[in-house]
Design a protein that fits this description.
By secondary structure, the protein is of the alpha/beta class. The chain has helices at 30-42, 58-66, 96-110, 129-142, 155-168, 191-198, 234-238, 244-251, 254-260, 264-273, 288-294, 304-314, and strands at 3-5, 12-14, 16-19, 47-49, 76-81, 115-120, 145-150, 173-176, 201-205, 278-283. Helix 1 crosses helix 2. It binds NADP nicotinamide-adenine-dinucleotide phosphate. Keywords: NADP, Oxidoreductase.
């Protein structure tokens, strides 16, 4: 496993992180969740990503139990706050009240005294940015959080936050967590250039497009049994990508992966890691074999010719519009 700095910070993260959205506390039983976490650890993954909202807070509990007994200093544990974790008006968003309450819940569920990275899961239009950033800074001073970052914020939102942090002397954001894959490149036009200039890096989600880039979903065929597309929760998220034209083009990536001696999942993960502003690709898994497959992308460097062939195959199914980075227009 190779390691990269998180933004301009001194923190190192594993190039491949393990994330537990959809899976822990929901799609997979606890034994499978534990087996995936231990496969990740065995393969040298040190960075783990979760969120308070995943599986209605159960995902953090499952991860906390799975990591119990592992030397804390050998791990980087990332979580997030914003989406609702309860029914009340203050059980959501980025107010000082919810941030302070949510972090305590996350620490309890994760069985740790601190998280390495605390991320604003979306931009909260109903809370002054100063309030959120001061609360984040207070958590850093309290030692509950070591670094702060955001997820799915636009370049403009990140720039506004950095300006306030610099004026107020708050801890600066070190990372952005966007969706990024060879199919979804919306960060390339605005978010990445700003982050390169300002010392933030990307920790990217769904690098395998939720399984689509493994090539296991065939055009015109039912989804394979046990896959995310057949899971009641997962199918709602992956559905958008199960388009026959897109799936047909993904099949055409197979010779490119084969020529390099890579699996399709490894090609997809290596593709995001080729971007120097990406610190880590967060992969999900329902089975330990998937983790063992995906981690082998660490250290693989795709050449220009491979990148060109991928672009040629995918053509206009690639999404590049920076306007697709969006947070809810009102607090959920
Ligand atoms: N910040 C955000 O808003 C946000 C949003 C989404 C995700 N995330 C983070 O990013 C992480 C990863 O997201 P993701 O789970 O969508 O990532 P992904 O790695 O693109 O997809 C993972 C899923 O693809 C399938 N898969 C993975 N490797 C495979 C392989 N080698 N062969 C066949 N199938 C394979 C598995 O599903 P099946 O076996 O069920 O098919 C697995 O659960 C999340 O856990 C979370 O930490 C963040």
């Amino acid at each position: 496993m190779e390691f990269r700095h998180l933004g301009r910070s001194g923190l190192m993260v594993s190039e491949i992180s393990y994330g537990n959205w959809i899976t822990h506390g929901s799609q997979v039983e606890e034994d499978a969740a534990r087996a995936c976490v231990h496969a990740a650890l065995d393969e040298g993954v040190t960075t783990f990503d979760t969120a308070d909202v995943y599986a209605g807070t159960r995902a953090e509990e499952v991860l906390g139990r799975a990591l119990e007994g592992v030397r804390r200093e050998s791990l980087e544990i990332f979580t997030k706050v914003y989406w609702p974790t309860g029914t009340g008006p203050n059980d959501r968003g980025l107010s000082r009240k919810h941030i302070m309450e949510s972090v305590n819940g996350s620490l309890r569920r994760l069985r740790t005294d601190y998280v390495d990275l605390y991320q604003a899961h979306r931009f909260d239009v109903e809370t002054p940015l100063e309030e959120t950033l001061r609360a984040f800074d207070d958590l850093v001073r309290q030692g509950k959080v070591l670094y702060v970052g955001v997820s799915e914020w636009t370049a403009d939102q990140i720039a506004r936050a950095l300006k306030i942090a610099d004026e107020m002397g708050f801890d600066r954001l070190v990372s952005s967590q966007p969706q990024y894959s060879m199919l979804w490149r919306v960060i390339e036009a605005e978010v990445v250039p700003l982050c390169e200039k300002e010392g933030l890096s990307q920790i990217v989600w769904s690098p395998i497009a939720q399984g689509v880039l493994t090539g296991k979903y065939l055009p015109g065929q039912p989804a394979p049994a046990g896959s995310r597309a057949t899971d009641p929760t997962g199918s709602g998220f992956i559905g958008r990508m199960l388009d026959d034209e897109l799936l047909r083009r993904v099949q055409e990536l197979k010779p490119i992966a084969a020529d390099l001696g890579l699996t399709m999942a490894q090609l997809a993960v290596a593709w995001v890691l080729r971007n120097p502003n990406v610190s880590s690709a967060i992969v999900g898994a329902t089975r330990p074999e998937q983790v063992r497959d995906n981690v082998k992308a660490s250290g693989v460097r795709l050449d220009d010719e491979t990148m060109r062939r991928i672009d040629e195959v995918l053509g206009d199914v690639v999404e590049r519009d920076p306007a697709k980075t969006v947070s809810p227009a009102t607090r959920p």
